[in-house]
Write a structure and sequence with these properties.
The protein is an all-alpha fold. It has one domain. Helix content is about 80%, strand content about 0%. Helix 2 crosses helix 3. The longest helix is centred in the middle third of the chain and has 29 residues. The protein is globular.
């Protein structure tokens, strides 16, 4: 797992970092926004590599494992957002700010998007809920909590990989 995840991380650092370095990111004020982009990208690389390895170890049938991996990606990338927006629109008469913050912690892609939007300081584009999210996740405690949840998203599948690998008869 670490070999694949680290090679993806190095590829991300070189593929995204090198053009920005050549462009002169160190002399601009956007270095912190860029560092958040890299950090979130690294987290997502490690998260989805761990999920993929966990799925691969749990399934003997390659086709079923491949289908499950695509389904998990599709769920996090598309379906979760649709269900999230459906819940927000169905229960729009109720205060859903804390629900929106809590539900965004269960999707690493959404959490990463929110962190980048908050770092770019364009959360006003997200409306009233964006202001509430800015009040929580825009603080140092909120950023630390969000990065901690992303770290948990890395650690839980990695622990699952270890748990399955120890019990599996190769």
């Amino acid at each position: 797992y670490l070999g694949v995840a680290c090679s993806l991380a190095i590829s991300l650092l070189l593929g995204v970092g090198l053009p920005f370095v050549l462009y002169g990111i160190f002399s601009s004020g956007e270095i912190w926004n860029f560092s958040m982009l890299l950090l979130v990208g690294l987290f997502l690389s490690f998260i989805f590599s761990a999920i993929a390895f966990f799925i691969a170890l749990r399934n003997e049938n390659r086709i079923k494992g491949f289908g499950l991996a695509i389904l998990v990606w599709l769920f996090f990338a598309v379906i979760y957002d649709g269900l999230f927006l459906l819940a927000l629109s169905m229960f729009s008469d109720y205060p859903l700010e804390s629900f929106a913050i809590g539900a965004s912690l269960f999707n690493p892609i959404d959490l990463s998007r929110i962190l980048i939007l908050l770092k770019l300081d364009i959360s006003a584009l997200m409306g009233y809920t964006g202001a509430v999210i800015q009040n929580f996740m825009g603080t140092v405690l909120g950023m630390a909590c969000s990065l901690g949840v992303l770290a948990l998203w890395v650690l839980l599948p990695a622990w699952g990989i270890r748990w399955v690998a120890v019990r599996k008869d190769f």
